[in-house]
Design goal:
By secondary structure, the protein is mainly alpha-helical. About 55% of the residues lie in helices and about 0% in strands. The strands form 2 sheets. A two-stranded antiparallel ribbon has the order 1-2. The chain has a two-stranded antiparallel sheet with strand order 3-4. The longest helix has about 30 residues. It is globular, with a radius of gyration of 24 Å. The two termini are about 15 Å apart. The main subunits of complex b-c1 are: cytochrome b, cytochrome c1 and the Rieske protein. It comes from Brevundimonas variabilis.
């Protein structure tokens, strides 16, 4: 917490010398002893999992870069050489490729947990905003890395995404030329993408440090969503270590087991087969798709008929996350005590899965077999295009309509006075609870 006093005492001369000049050991020790709410569940372990995923990506990426050739003539062959001739190269490549998917699985769970428990509300807005910055940088890094193997899907994915920049009025064309390094995707493009892909993980690491710093200052949220007063800290909070280091370690073990299953038993399950075909600018794949973790945003892009409108919608789908703390009007943080909003939240999660599914389909493919009815101006109501549009509409309505309106109109359940006191159900057992409206905001 912001008022947490340091308990670290340097013991050796070296520690004392370092502590007076760069108190990094003190920062780590203080973080380990940070008072933490005692009711954090396993959904809160994904922060530690994400940190490990980032370190895995950085370390494997450094070793892969030692053997990668960022040219259109040598990129694909260098990847194959890594797989076949470099000692342990196949393992490095599969860990790095599948590590990106594991990274996004963890970050989606982490963000959905924050959304459910209201971790973006005051005084934790900066924690949330920095998390959104990390998410945006992850998407950029993943896209740049997707291009580097220089397979068919890599090349045409880069062709499609970079062309979107050209749709921006006035400044789009100059930015497109700068991004590609010329009028077309070539050696200059691959060099730029390789340099940025190598750089951005370290930028992410820097933002993660700021993210943890903000967490250390504002304190950890909890599933109940209440602010813990100073006089309740001894009853409601415990040190981060050893309680949550052990819990995080167990969750990390389970997560890494799933990671290992993908790496050793189905390393290509989350990739695209066309990326094992060398890039050919003269042969367009039948269906150009990004990696699975970008499919929801790709679906939103295709849902809008206008090219520039689709670009705005795609980036708006990410940008809306940055202003989320000011869109939610409810004074209650946790959706445990917001039954109406909880229903819309579950629908939002399902809607995200639908967007991801639609993003991987052809826009005009029928949803149910070859059944075709209700012809409209732009096509068939039974197509994925229309399902994508309905899902896109709900995505934005959740943030701009439901969160503000439901927060003002719904009647929340009563919330407990503290996380240590159980709250019994029923009108006659509310002595240990207060009306949700009475909780001070922030």
């Amino acid at each position: 917490m912001s008022g947490h006093e340091s308990t670290y005492v340097p013991k050796t001369g070296v520690e004392k010398w370092l502590d007076t000049r760069l108190p990094i050991v003190r920062f780590g020790a203080d973080y380990m002893s940070l008072p933490t709410p005692k009711n954090l569940n396993y959904w809160y372990t994904f922060g530690a999992i994400l940190t490990v995923c980032l370190m895995i990506q950085i370390i494997t990426g450094i070793f892969l870069a030692m053997n990668y050739v960022p040219t259109t003539a040598g990129a694909f062959a260098s990847v194959e050489r890594i797989m076949r001739d470099v000692n342990g190269g196949w393992l490095l490549r599969y860990v790095h490729a599948n590590g990106a998917s594991m990274f996004f699985i963890a970050v989606y769970v982490h963000m959905l947990r924050g959304l459910y428990y209201g971790s973006y509300k005051a005084p934790r807005e900066m924690i949330w905003i920095l998390g959104c910055v990390i998410f945006f940088l992850m998407i950029a890094t993943a896209f740049l890395g997707y291009v580097l193997p220089w397979g068919q899907m890599s090349y045409w994915g880069a062709e499609v995404i970079t062309n979107l920049v050209g749709a921006i009025p006035l400044i789009g064309e100059p930015i497109l030329i700068w991004l590609r390094g010329g009028p077309a995707i070539d050696n200059a493009t691959l060099n730029r993408f390789f340099s940025l892909h190598y750089l951005l993980p370290f930028v992410i690491f820097g933002v993660v440090v700021l993210h943890l710093w903000a967490l250390h200052t504002s304190g950890q949220n909890n599933p109940v969503g209440i602010l813990i007063p100073k006089d309740r800290e001894k009853k409601d909070m415990i040190p981060f270590h050893p309680y949550y280091t052990v819990k995080d370690g167990f969750a990390l073990l389970l997560f890494m087991t799933m990671f290992a299953v993908f790496v050793f038993f189905m390393p290509n399950a989350l990739g695209h087969a066309d990326n094992y075909i060398p890039a050919n600018p003269l042969q367009t794949p039948a269906h150009i798709v990004p990696e699975w973790y970008m499919l929801p945003f790709y679906a939103i892009l295709r849902a809008v008929p206008d090219k520039f409108g689709g670009v705005l919608a795609m980036f708006g789908a990410i940008g809306v996350l940055f202003v989320l703390p000011w869109l939610d009007t409810s004074k209650v943080r946790s959706m445990r005590y917001r039954p109406t909003m909880r229903i819309f939240y579950i629908a939002f999660v399902i809607n995200g899965l639908i967007l991801g599914w639609c993003g991987g389909q052809l826009p005009d493919a029928p949803v149910i077999g070859n059944f075709s009815t209700f012809n409209l101006i732009d096509g068939d109501l039974n197509s994925f295009l229309w399902l994508t549009r309905f899902a896109t509409l709900y995505y934005f309505a959740f943030f701009f309509v439901l969160l503000p309106f439901v927060g003002l109109k719904e009647t929340p359940l009563r919330i407990p006075l503290s996380i240590s006191e159980p709250v019994l159900r029923g009108p006659d057992a509310m002595s240990g609870a207060v009306p949700a409206q009475a909780e001070k905001k922030g």
